[in-house]
Design brief:
The chain has 6 helices and 10 strands. The chain is of the alpha+beta class. Strand 8 and strand 9 form a beta hairpin.
């Protein structure tokens, strides 16, 4: 009864519409926008009061037509999980109760009880068109912060920083479009669990000079030992293992930059 304003007369069930309105306002001045909101949403649960939950929702907008912003949004969600020491949750394809999400370019993070904790998705083309945003590529993420804080956290363990320098290798891989980046990261990391300390995606490319059913993904791989300075020979052996495992998975190595 005591609503906030004439255009805010109902309890919100999602934060997405408000962010869409903000995107509309910002594209007058910017071609790229990153924005988020932390607020409360409400669900009808057939009780006197609705279910009130704290939600984090973010949006990334760009004029570039690629899938990189989807993985950027996915990375934000997983980074929040890591910072809060939440046990690793594997994404599942698709989203429920999200009509504003693209039907095939969406994933959900679900806990062992079947509760959806987070969603990452490309905005549905019809929704984008209805908000005059059809000329932009837009990715969203939404996290149920209320449910997230109910999860048991992983204990933090001290890990001594290595005194020895690291080696970084950049590789580009040509792979089928349907191949998940997460699976490639695991393949690379398992190639040498003693020396590979980090695998980070930094680029995804689809377009000219790439077959229509394939994509090019690039990773930065960090090698480091706690016991010694690595030699060029050790780096070469690990690199060969990575290449072999990628090729077994159907990938083709496109290029490699000199290690640093």
């Amino acid at each position: 009864l005591n609503y906030l304003s004439e255009d805010q007369t109902h309890l919100r069930t999602t934060l997405v519409p408000n962010l869409l309105k903000n995107l509309q306002n910002n594209i007058k001045y910017y071609d790229e926008v990153k924005i988020y909101e932390i607020g409360h949403t409400y669900k009808e649960i057939n009780k006197f009061y609705p279910l009130e939950e704290k939600i984090i929702t973010g949006a990334i907008l760009t004029k570039e037509k690629n899938n990189q912003i989807f993985y950027e949004a996915k990375g934000i969600v997983e980074n929040i999980f890591q910072k809060l020491s939440i046990p690793k949750l594997s994404p599942a394809k698709g989203t429920k109760d999200a009509p504003y999400a693209h039907p095939t370019k969406s994933i959900s993070y679900i806990d062992v009880h079947g509760q959806t904790l987070a969603k990452v998705f490309i905005l549905h083309p019809n929704v984008a068109k209805n908000h005059d945003l059809e000329n932009y590529n837009i990715a969203f993420f939404t996290i149920n912060f209320t449910e997230l804080l109910k999860l048991p956290t992983e204990p933090r363990r001290y890990q001594q920083i290595s005194k020895f320098p690291s080696i970084q290798i950049d590789i580009s891989i040509l792979i089928k479009k349907e191949t998940e980046v997460d699976s490639l990261e695991k393949i690379i990391a398992r190639s040498d669990q003693n020396l590979i300390t980090k695998v980070k995606l930094f680029d995804i490319y689809e377009g000219p000079n790439i077959e229509s059913d394939k994509k090019a993904v690039a990773f930065k791989i960090t090698l480091q030992s706690k016991e010694r300075t690595l030699t060029d020979e050790e780096m070469a052996v690990t690199q060969k293992k990575i290449f072999q495992n990628i090729e077994k998975a159907g990938g083709i190595i496109r290029g490699i930059k000199e290690p640093i």
